[in-house]
Specification:
Shape: globular
CATH superfamily: PAS domain
Helix content: 25-40%
Order of helices and strands: HEHHEEEHEEE
Distance between the termini: 39 Å
Strand content: 25-35%
CATH architecture: 2-Layer Sandwich
């Protein structure tokens, strides 16, 4: 009996440890959605991509609206964002910082210049009044001055959106 109890406690400990950080969305989903979005832009043009990526209910928004694709150019201008359309009114976000003072759009441009890459920063969860750590994949649309991004939020244990 004591051995079974230790085994059960061990399994619970392992499961809790694995669940200590929950991701809303996954790295693979972000990469896949970005590549699909880049292909959509290449096939349909920038105007169609802006229209598609701007809607909150499109194939590039998933995970109950928590994960989404956005579109920017190499001048750090947001062209399409499904949850923060006001960002498209700014000429450049290069100097914008997260709550910790990180100028993460500089990282976006750096990743886009390399063709792709991951960035980490803090950002507001769509539809929530909460800021969480976010990991975003940046993917340059080949042979263009555009890139797309998609990310996931790092959530605390037992926290779901």
């Amino acid at each position: 009996m004591k051995g079974k109890l230790i085994g059960v406690v061990g399994i619970l400990f392992l499961l809790f440890g694995l669940a200590s950080t929950v991701w809303s969305g996954t790295r693979d989903e972000c990469i896949s959605k970005c590549k699909d979005a880049a292909e959509f832009l290449k096939s349909n043009g920038v105007a169609a991509a802006v229209k598609e990526f701007s809607g909150q209910k499109n194939r590039f928004v998933w995970n109950n609206g928590i994960s989404y694709v956005f579109l920017m150019d190499m001048n750090c201008k947001v062209l399409a964002h499904p949850f923060n359309p006001e960002l498209t009114k700014m000429n450049s976000l290069i100097d914008l910082k997260d709550v910790n003072g990180k100028a993460f759009f500089v990282d976006f441009i750096s990743a886009a210049k390399k063709g792709k890459g991951w960035t980490k920063y803090h950002w507001t969860v769509p539809g929530k009044d909460v800021i969480k750590p976010k990991h975003t994949f940046i993917f340059r649309v080949p042979d263009t001055d555009y890139f797309v991004g998609a990310g996931f939020y790092v959530l605390a244990p037992g926290e779901f959106y």
